[in-house]
Every structure is written in structure tokens, then in C-alpha cells.
Amino acid sequence: MKQLIETLNAPKPTGPYSQGVKAGGFIFVSGQDGVHPDGSTAGESIGAQAAASLDNIKNILAEKGAGLSDLVYVTCHLNDLTEANVKAFNEVYAGYFADVEVKPARITVGSQLMETDVEITAIACVD
Fold first, then answer.
1. Which domain of life is it from (predicted)?
2. Which helix (H) or strand (E) holds 22?
């Protein structure tokens, strides 16, 4: 059985999708851009947008009592996949998972993003 996840602490979907869905012991979080819950861009830096994306994911997970430590897989999209951007992204990302013993598996890819420079999707296991 699928359960819809909605929160005012993350941006409203801009298309026909859910912020998150809980199903079969997992939470699937839709791509979270580098924007604040009100939809405003979190700034021009990769770091600021990465932080906003991860905060949104954290807030969506919290609606079902989960957290970043429950993540098992993360897909990170960067608009400009350069060494400097990946380094800046990783600095922020590492801070969010500093206290997580088993960090989620992850891929970081270059993508043509429309309005931001960062978008992150995530899957959490919540047996």
C-alpha cells in the first residue's frame, strides 16, 4: 500500500508528482531542487542549493518519522559537473552525513536542470 507524504516544510510539487511516497518499507523522495519551501532559490552557490535540497529531503522524511540516517540511496544532479562544483557540493553533503555511520550509496551526475544548479532524489529504508 502506498502512502502519500506531504509537508509544508518543503516546496510544493510543480508538476504531477508527490513530494514523497512511502511503500513497502521504503520512502521515495522526489527530486528536491536547491530551493526553500516557499519556492525561492536558495542562492547561487552550489553549497547553498545543496543545503536547501538536503533540508527539504530531511523535512519530507520527518513526516514519516524518518531521517537522513535512514537513507540507502541518493541521486545527486548538478547542472555543471565540474571538479570545483563537485568539491563544493561534497563539503556540504558530508556535513549532513557526518554523524551517519552507514552513509547512503550515491551517484552524482551532470544534468540539464531548468531553474537551479542542484537537485537530489533519495530512497530511505524504514522497516
1. Bacteria
2. strand 20-23
Angle at 120 between CA 58 and CA 127, to 5 degrees: 50
Q: Which residue has the cell 540516517?
A: 69
CB 89 within 8 A of CB 77: no
Write down the pLDDT at residue 83: 96
Q: Is 18 inside a domain boundary?
A: no
Q: Which three cell numbers stand for residue 33?
A: 531542487
Evaluate whether 27 touches 57 at the Cβ level (below 8 Å).
no
Q: Domain containing 114 — which CATH number?
A: 3.30.1330.40
Q: pTM for the whole thing?
A: 0.96
Whole-number pLDDT of residue 127: 79
Residue 110 maps to a domain: yes
- Residues in the chain where the model's pLDDT stays below 70: none
In a domain, 24, yes or no: no
- The owner of cell 544548479 is 117
Lookup result for grid cell 547512503: 104
Measured CA to CA, the distance from residue 58 to residue 109 in angstroms comes to 21
pLDDT at position 81 is 95
* Structural domain for 108, as ranges: 33-123
